[in-house]
Amino acid sequence: MKILIVDDDPAIRKFLNSILTQDGYTIVSADDGNKVPELLEAHPDITTVITDIIMPEQEGIETIRTIRAQWPNMKIIAISGGGKIGPANYLQLAHAIGADATLKKPFGRTELLAALQSL
């Protein structure tokens, strides 16, 4: 299975990449939601997107909307560590607009793999 990771934090991308490649997933990554359409077009075998919610260029909420509009069957996991209104509010919004699962940062390997298996 091929997964697209979208997070502006290189340490988070590295963490996710490490866990997922150990479990046999193929990873494509981006540091910005603006790159998602181009990457999904270039890699039609991507089945799941893991996206951060709070990013400087294009935030995850807009990224989820874009994915749902163009790839309605794509599986999406939204992740967030917070922000001004707290992670729970952002993750509830992400779920309401189409995320299949949500994870509050920090999370570990077990939670990540469980979220993927639940899709």
Automatic annotation (TrEMBL):
The keyword Phosphoprotein applies. SUPFAM superfamilies: CheY-like. The keyword Metal-binding does not apply. Residues 2-119 form the Response regulatory domain. Keywords: Phosphoprotein. InterPro entries: Bact_response_regulator (IPR050595), CheY-like_superfamily (IPR011006), Sig_transdc_resp-reg_receiver (IPR001789). The modification 4-aspartylphosphate is found at residue 52. This is Response regulator.
